[in-house]
TrEMBL record:
It comes from Gymnopus androsaceus JB14. Keywords: Amino-acid biosynthesis, Cytoplasm, Dioxygenase, Iron, Metal-binding, Methionine biosynthesis, Nickel, Nucleus, Oxidoreductase. Its cofactor is Fe(2+); Ni(2+). It is found in: Cytoplasm; Nucleus. This is Acireductone dioxygenase. Binds either 1 Fe or Ni cation per monomer. Iron-binding promotes an acireductone dioxygenase reaction producing 2-keto-4-methylthiobutyrate, while nickel-binding promotes an acireductone dioxygenase reaction producing 3-(methylsulfanyl)propanoate.
Amino acid sequence: MRAYFFDNLPGDQRLPHDSSRSVDAETLNKIKVEFWHIPVEGHEAKLDEIAKERGYRNRDVITVSKEGLGGEYEEKIKAFYKEHIHEDEEIRYILSGGGFFDVRQAPTDEWIRIAVSSGDLLVIPAGIYHRFTVDERNMSRTTRLFKDEPKWSAIYRGDESDTNPHRINYLKSIAVAA
Ligand SMILES: CSCCC(=O)/C(O)=C/O
Ligand SMILES: [Fe+2]
């Protein structure tokens, strides 16, 4: 896992877009993004422990690739890279391949790019604006943890998202006024 500010330059979303300005763990902690590295071999026990501690009852594995998603690939890639929030925390564990999770720092609204590969586990809090893309490998196999039914539902950034209670609570939790 490596984090840095996104360069905001035009170009394929799957390229690194590395501004060379690194982001440290403390900066990520301030915006409530957590991460672990858990070696893939034998990761199940640690994942079970995290799921139990945080009350997650379900999980699935998604392969984001042309082969994995077939006819849905283009549509899903667009949906994941469109800026959004969730009303639940997002926990993702990368089994193979990799990609980039971009999270918006508040209050600056700058994109922080988090490069993930196999063994990286990321916790993205409810209410933070973010997006995902595969990298140049064009493939990520990821375990997604869900508290309830395994369902992906996103609220795209727009007028309604800024007044969503989960967005407001998130800003409060990091001591930023909504
Ligand atoms: C790599 S898991 C698929 C992407 C996803 O679930 C999500 O919410 C991205 O923000
Ligand atoms: Fe998401």
